Amino acid sequence: QLQLVESGGSLVQPGGSLRLSCAASGFTLHFNAIGWFRQAPGKDREGVSCISSVGIKTNYADSVKGRFTISRDNANNTVYLQMNSLKPEDTAVYYCAATTRPCGLFPEWYAYWGQGTQVTVSS
């Protein structure tokens, strides 16, 4: 059964860092572009970052450029999102998702989703 599982979410102070992980089971990640999305209460789901199937192309939302870094380890079937200089507005549930389409920050492109992990940035 195809499954994505996120981990690494936590409560962190402003300016802090977290690394989220997205582990795949039931399929091999390297055939897919992987995206990270987030959804805050009362807001639409938004694209944060994506990485192409072999990791050559990446894309970031303007709001996270220079602070977040996406990477992948195909040997371990895992994609990471390193988040630095976190701000209160980064608070959301973060989801990873897989697509057979190119790397893009459009939720409708992604067919497979994890259950999400909560990130809270607060003092």
Outline of this structure?
The protein has 123 residues and is an all-beta fold. The chain has strands spanning 3-7, 11-12, 18-25, 33-39, 46-51, 58-60, 68-73, 78-83, 92-99, 112-113, 117-121.
**What summary fits the major beta sheet?**
7 strands, mixed
Distance between the termini: 40 Å
Q: List segments where confidence is low: pLDDT < 50 over at least 5 consecutive residues.
A: none
Which overall shape is indicated by the principal axes computed on the Cα atoms?
Answer: globular
Let me know the number of strands: 11
- In what range is the share of β-strand residues? over 45%
Order of helices and strands: EEEEEEEEEEE
The overall pLDDT average reads 94
Helical content stands at: under 10%
Radius of gyration: 13 Å
- Number of H/I helices: 0
Structural class: mainly beta
Helix/strand layout:
Elements: E1 3-7, E2 11-12, E3 18-25, E4 33-39, E5 46-51, E6 58-60, E7 68-73, E8 78-83, E9 92-99, E10 112-113, E11 117-121
Parallel strand pairs: 2-11
Antiparallel strand pairs: 1-3, 3-8, 4-5, 4-9, 5-6, 7-8, 9-10, 9-11
Written account of the structure:
This protein is an all-beta fold. Helix content is 0%, strand content 47%. It has no helices and eleven strands.
Describe this protein with a few key phrases.
123 residues; mainly beta; 7-stranded mixed beta sheet; globular
